[in-house]
Design a protein that fits this description.
Elements lengths: L1 H29 L1 E2 L2 E2 L4 H12 L9 H11 L3 H22 L1
C-alpha cells in the first residue's frame, strides 16, 4: 500500500513540475522568447506559415499568438492551476501504473 502511495506522489509531483517548469521551457526552446520570436527557430517557421495563411498577419488568439504570449509573459495563474491539476492527476495515474 505504501509503495502505491509513493508511486502516485512521485508521478503527481513530476506532472506538476512539468506543468510549472517544463511547459514554459518547451515554449522557449521552440523560439518564443520574451523579446519576440527568435530568427530561424521553429517559432519563426510557425509565424511565417500563419502569416501566409492569413494574408500577411498573425490572427489574435491563434496558436502562434498564444505561444508568443506564454514566451513573453509566462503562464497566467489560471493556466498554471489548470495545468498543475491536469498533469498532476495524469502523473499520479501513470506513476501508480508504471513505477
Amino acid at each position: 500500500m505504501i509503495s502505491i502511495i509513493r508511486r502516485v506522489i512521485f508521478g503527481a509531483t513530476a506532472g506538476v513540475g512539468l506543468a510549472l517548469f517544463g511547459a514554459p521551457a518547451i515554449v522557449s526552446v521552440l523560439g518564443f522568447k520574451a523579446g519576440g520570436i527568435a530568427a530561424g527557430s521553429i517559432a519563426a517557421k510557425m509565424m511565417s506559415a500563419a502569416a501566409i495563411a492569413n494574408n500577411g498577419g498573425v490572427a489574435a488568439g491563434s496558436t502562434v499568438a498564444v505561444l508568443q504570449s506564454i514566451g513573453a509573459a509566462g503562464l497566467a495563474a489560471t493556466a498554471k492551476i489548470w495545468l498543475s491539476s491536469a498533469l498532476g492527476t495524469l502523473g499520479g495515474i501513470i506513476g501508480a501504473k508504471c513505477f
